[in-house]
Amino acid sequence: MIICMTQPSVILATASYDHTIRFWEAKSGRCYRTIQYPESQVNRLEITPDKRFLAAAGNPHIRLFDVNSTSPQPVMSYDSHTNNVMAVGFQCDGKWMYSGSEDGTVKIWDLRAPGCQREYESRAAVNTVVLHPNQTELISGDQNGNIRVWDLTANSCSCELVPEVDTAVRSLTVMWDGSLVVAANNKGTCYVWRLLRGTQTMTNFEPLHKLQAHDGYILKCLLSPEFCEPQRYLATASSDSTVKIWNVDGFTLEKTLVGHQRWVWDCVFSVDGAYLITASSDTTARLWSMSTGEDIRVYQGHHKATVCCALHDGAETTGA
C-alpha cells in the first residue's frame, strides 16, 4: 500500500555521498522522508515544474521519485547513459527532461514514453546543461572547456565556444529572460556573455565580463530568478567553502556567505530570490537570508558530503 501525504508547499531535497536523498521541512529543519539510493552517488537533483516528481541523476541512470509518496521505489528509471549523469532538468511544462553525462552526451527524454528521444555528442565529459528560457536551445559545458548550444528545432549544434582552452566548464546559468549566460570554470573564473538573437533563430554570445570570483574551483554558479527583480544577483559556490553573491550590475561583490566548513557543491534560490539553499561537503545544507547574509537554518542528517540540493517553493506549473 502506498500512502499519499499532503504535499508541503515548499519542497526541499538534498542528496549525499551517504547514498540517501532526504526531504526537509524548510522552516523547521526537520527531515521527514529519507530515500535509500544504494546503487551510486547522486550528482544532481531537480523537481518537476508541477512539484510531483524528483529526478535524481546518478551513475549511470536517472531515477524519478514521487514527491508525495512514502514508497522508497522510483516510479521511473532512465537508463541509456553509460557514465555519471551530471546534469538534469525539465522543460517548463514538464513534458520532457534533459540530461548531460560524463559519457560525453546530452540527452532528451519524453517523460510520457520510455527510452531516450534524442542524443547529442559533446565528445568530452559533460558537466553542466541548462535550458534557455526560449525552451528551444540547450547549452552544455564540458570537461575540455567547450560550451555548445544545441538547437532543438534544427536538431543540431548551432554555436560552439571555448572561453579557456583545457579548463573544464563546471557550471552554466542563464538569466530568466534569456539576456545573459554565465559559465564558471575550475580556475574560479566566471565568463559572462550577453545573449543576442541573430537574424536567424540562433543565439549569439557577446562577451560582457570576466570575473575572478574565487581562488578555488567554482562548483556551481546561479543567476537569481524573475521575482527577485529589480535586483539581479549571481551566486558562486566554491571549493573555498564560501558562496559569493555578486550584483549583476557591474559584477561587484555584494556578500560572502560564510559558515560551511568544506566545499560548497550546489546552491538554489527561493522563487523570490530572498533566500538561498546550499549543500556542502561538511554534510550540511544551509538556508541563507539574502538580505543579511546569515544562515538561518542548518539541515543536519546526512553523514557524508551533501553534494546537491533542489528547492521548489513556487506555484505549481501544470502542463497543458
Question: What do these coordinates show?
Answer:
This protein has 320 residues and is an all-beta fold. 0% of the residues lie in helices and 51% in strands. The chain has no helices and 28 strands.
Q: Please count the helical segments.
A: 0
Q: Can you tell me the residue ranges where pLDDT is under 50 for at least 5 consecutive residues?
A: 1-5
Q: What is the overall silhouette?
A: globular
For the report, how would you describe the main beta sheet?
Answer: 4 strands, antiparallel
For the CA atoms, what is the radius of gyration?
18 Å
Secondary structure class reads: mainly beta
Beta fraction of the residues? over 45%
- Helix-strand sequence: EEEEEEEEEEEEEEEEEEEEEEEEEEEE
* Assembly of the depicted chains: single chain
Record the strand order, biggest sheet.
3-2-1-28
Describe the secondary-structure layout:
Elements: E1 11-16, E2 20-24, E3 31-36, E4 44-47, E5 53-57, E6 62-66, E7 76-78, E8 85-90, E9 96-101, E10 105-110, E11 116-121, E12 126-131, E13 137-142, E14 147-151, E15 156-161, E16 169-174, E17 180-185, E18 189-197, E19 203-212, E20 218-223, E21 233-238, E22 243-247, E23 252-257, E24 264-269, E25 275-280, E26 285-289, E27 295-299, E28 306-312
Antiparallel strand pairs: 1-2, 1-28, 2-3, 4-5, 5-6, 6-7, 8-9, 9-10, 10-11, 12-13, 13-14, 14-15, 16-17, 17-18, 18-19, 20-21, 21-22, 22-23, 24-25, 25-26, 26-27
Organism: Helianthus annuus (Common sunflower)
WD repeats: 12-34, 78-112, 119-160, 211-256, 257-298
Subunit structure: The target of rapamycin complex 1 (TORC1) is composed of at least RAPTOR, LST8 and TOR.
